[in-house]
Design brief:
45% helix; seven-stranded parallel β-sheet; single chain; alpha/beta; binds NADP nicotinamide-adenine-dinucleotide phosphate
């Protein structure tokens, strides 16, 4: 099969921020991109419009990936509309911060369901067609918080550490089918999620600035490319030297 003509790329949580930049970048590499969103249909349509204006192919696809039944429904729709999902970027993520003694079950579960369990369910579903096609790229958007302490984010840290561990093991399971599963771990990136984060944080970054969504998308672009066929089960950190 001609992968880019007959298959598609799914980016979860692509209505703004890092996911939107990833969608634009994969479309610029000729992938037909499903721009997933939960509630921000306007944002998703804007991203689709930008992609089409640049000569690319994309469509918006609503699904709350934290819903246990979402992955099956989403993939069935996508397969009918755009063919097999050959590239999956698990980007949808939320935070609900609080120090551990005060973290309630709802904040714990919401973050774990969205950032980790949803990625498990979409990956499990995507691997079906990837294994059939003997090609696939899964990229999980983790965080440096999955690798080092960040007080007030025990739930978020656990979700991202889990996502990194999940990435490594699934990569080892499917590598012989020419499928790669990697993670990208951004540091501080300027998006709605990090609005209001002060100068103190910036001083901790050797680059002395936040990253841009496009700088994260460039890492994803590499991991999805043919050139990255032998890069598997790794975590690519993009943090301006913060964890160096
Ligand atoms: P953002 O600006 O808050 O955007 C989050 C996106 O995820 C939105 O499009 C949102 O769509 C979508 N989303 C949230 N829950 C969803 C769900 N249940 N189903 C489907 N879509 C959902 O966040 P961001 O900063 O771009 O972050 C993107 C990813 O990078 C996240 O996984 C985040 O943890 C990770 N990350 C970010 C940073 C940073 O500094 N910004 C650093 C490290 C890692 P709706 O508005 O429609 O809900």
């Amino acid at each position: 099969m001609n992968r880019k003509a007959d298959g598609c790329a799914l980016v979860t949580g692509a209505s703004r921020g890092i996911g939107a930049a990833i969608a634009r970048t994969l479309a610029a590499d000729s992938w037909l991109v499903a721009v997933n969103y939960r509630s921000d249909s306007e944002g998703a349509e804007r991203v689709v419009g930008e992609i089409e204006a640049a000569g690319g192919r994309a469509f918006a696809q609503q699904a709350d990936v934290a819903e246990p039944s979402a992955a099956d429904e989403l993939f069935t729709d996508l397969e009918e509309r755009a063919g097999p999902v050959l590239v999956l970027v698990n980007n949808a993520g939320v935070r609900a911060d609080g120090l551990s003694p005060q973290l309630d079950d709802e904040s714990w579960n919401r973050v774990l369901e969205t950032n980790l369990s949803a990625a498990f369910r979409t990956t499990r579903r995507a691997l079906r067609s990837m294994m059939r096609e003997r090609f696939g790229r899964v990229v999980n958007i983790a965080s440096i918080v999955g690798q080092r302490a960040n007080p007030g984010q025990a739930n978020y840290a656990a979700s991202k550490a889990g996502l990194i561990a999940f990435t490594h093991t699934v990569a080892a399971e499917v590598a012989r089918r020419s499928i790669t599963v990697n993670a990208v771990a951004p540091g501080l990136v300027e998006t709605e999620m990090t609005e209001g984060i002060g100068d103190e944080m910036l001083r901790a970054i050797p680059a002395r600035r936040a990253g841009t969504p496009e700088e994260v998308a460039a890492c994803v672009r590499f991991l999805v490319s043919e050139e990255a066929s032998y890069v598997n089960g790794t975590t690519l950190t993009v943090d301006g030297g913060m964890t160096a």
